[in-house]
Every structure is written in structure tokens, then in C-alpha cells.
């Protein structure tokens, strides 16, 4: 298992999915789970700041998330919402929802079940989020904490928004990622921070391929590639 943490805009999702595919492993985006609950909250008209109501709704929400790195399905009440959970409304409310202790407790338990099931069935998974190495899977054999400068992260977020048809400026994107950082790192429940034994990787000046090669080499050193069909390729 690879636990991949870091703030918004560091390339976690692209790196995690690509690495999982390279290692013939499964993939879990825990952030998408918090976004699913946030979307459920917004659709119900619930105030994201009403913690009791949010906790109750999270318990009752029907959602599913896939672990195929090529096609990670994200469904709410059976509906594909992969694009909708990345919209500005969800992005603006997800920190408040994810800060609710009962929501985190519920989703962490679900994440651990998914990880355990995958490891029992296939033997490998790359999990991305903000508290994987510290809370969800503190015993993961490889923990990585991705970082990048605020300027680079803002530019990446702006590019993502533009590609998705959302018109924002780099300045707005920078304000958004910094706001998310403040909220995620200051929350009482599972704040954003690097695990003590996580390997820091600054992606500011690296291409995705360079990051993947570096992480694959780390996985090789930890003995995580034994029996992996891609073993002969990951370090190339």
C-alpha cells in the first residue's frame, strides 16, 4: 500500500491514479468521498455549518466510489457525479463538511474497509487524501507527502478549472488553495499534516513522469513491487 497525502494542487490525484496504474494496483480517492457527502448536503439544502444535520445526512447518504484507476466511478444515489463534485459549490463547502468529527469517523471507517478488502483481494492500492498516513492507514509501508509552491499550485488549479469550463483567475485559484490549506490544517479532527515517517516530495519543478519514477523507486526500495507485473518497467 502507498499512502499519498498533501494539500490541494500538488498533483495528488494525477500522481496517485498514474502510479496505481503503473503498479497494477487499485486506487482510492478519499477526498472524493468527502466531496460526495458535501454534494449530498448541498442537494438536501442543509447548511454545511450545521454539524449535527451534516453528520445525520452523512450517515444516511447513499454513495459509492470505485477503485479502478482507469475509471474510478463516483456515484451519489446511483448517479454519476464525478464532474459535479469538482464544481465550485462543492469546493467551497467541502472543508466545513470534512471538519465534522462524525463525518470523518464515518468515512475513515469506510475507507479502512475498502483498503482491507482490496488488499485481501488484489494485494495493492494507492490511497490519496489529507490524513491517510496519519489517521486512515498509519501502518502503511510507504507514506508520501506531496508539496508544491503556492504559485505552482494556483497555476495548476487554474488550469484544471479552465479545462473544466470554470472561469477563474490565477489569483482566485491561489486564494482558494490557501483558504483550503488554512481550514484543513487547523481543523480539530485529523488536520492536514505530514506523518512523521512520510517521505516529502516537492512537485513544483517536476513533471508527472518524474514524480511517478521517484515514487516507483521508493516503492521498489520498500519491497512493494514483489510480484508486480510492472516490476520491470516502473523504474524506467
From TrEMBL:
Stored InterPro entries: Cytidylate_kin (IPR003136), Cytidylate_kinase_dom (IPR011994), P-loop_NTPase (IPR027417)
One Pfam family matching this protein: Cytidylate_kin
Name of the top EC class for this enzyme: transferase
Cytidylate kinase domain boundaries: 2-220
Spans traversing the lipid bilayer: none
Entry's EC annotation: 2.7.4.25
UniProt key word tRNA-binding: no
Any GO MF annotation of the entry: dCMP kinase activity
Keyword Ribosomal protein included in the entry's annotation: no
Biological source species: Amycolatopsis panacis
Positions annotated to bind ATP: 6-14
Subcellular location: Cytoplasm
Region of interest (Disordered), residue spans: 157-196
Family recorded in the similarity comment: Belongs to the cytidylate kinase family. Type 1 subfamily.
Residue stretches of biased makeup (Polar residues): 160-170
Primary subcellular site in the record, as a coarse category: cytoplasm
Superkingdom as given in the UniProt entry: Bacteria
Biased composition annotated in UniProt, kind: Basic and acidic residues: 172-185
Gene Ontology terms describing biological process: nucleobase-containing small molecule interconversion; pyrimidine nucleotide metabolic process
Annotated Gene Ontology cellular component terms: cytosol
Keywords, in A-Z order: ATP-binding, Cytoplasm, Kinase, Nucleotide-binding, Transferase
Protein name: Cytidylate kinase
Amino acid at each position: 500500500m502507498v499512502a499519498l497525502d498533501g494539500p490541494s494542487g500538488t498533483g495528488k490525484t494525477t500522481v496517485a491514479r498514474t502510479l496505481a496504474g503503473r503498479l497494477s494496483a487499485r486506487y482510492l480517492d478519499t477526498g472524493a468521498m468527502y466531496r460526495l457527502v458535501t454534494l449530498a448536503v448541498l442537494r438536501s439544502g442543509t447548511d454545511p455549518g450545521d454539524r449535527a444535520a451534516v453528520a445525520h445526512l452523512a450517515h444516511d447518504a447513499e454513495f459509492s466510489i470505485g477503485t479502478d484507476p482507469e475509471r474510478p466511478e463516483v456515484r451519489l444515489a446511483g448517479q454519476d457525479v464525478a464532474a459535479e463534485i469538482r464544481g465550485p459549490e462543492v469546493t467551497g463547502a467541502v472543508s466545513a463538511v470534512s471538519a465534522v468529527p462524525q463525518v470523518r469517523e464515518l468515512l475513515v471507517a469506510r475507507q479502512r474497509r475498502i483498503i482491507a478488502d482490496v488488499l485481501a483481494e488484489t494485494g495493492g492500492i494507492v490511497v490519496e487524501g489529507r490524513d491517510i498516513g496519519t489517521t486512515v492507514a498509519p501502518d502503511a509501508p510507504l507514506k508520501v507527502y506531496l508539496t508544491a509552491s503556492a504559485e505552482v499550485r494556483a497555476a495548476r488549479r487554474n488550469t484544471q478549472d479552465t479545462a473544466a469550463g470554470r472561469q477563474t483567475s490565477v489569483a482566485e485559484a491561489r486564494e482558494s488553495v490557501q483558504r483550503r490549506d488554512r481550514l484543513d490544517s487547523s481543523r480539530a479532527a485529523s488536520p492536514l499534516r505530514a506523518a512523521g515517517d512520510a517521505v516529502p516530495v516537492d512537485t513544483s519543478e517536476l513533471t508527472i513522469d518524474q514524480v511517478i519514477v521517484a515514487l516507483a523507486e521508493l516503492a521498489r526500495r520498500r519491497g512493494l513491487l514483489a510480484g508486480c507485473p510492472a516490476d520491470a518497467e516502473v523504474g524506467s
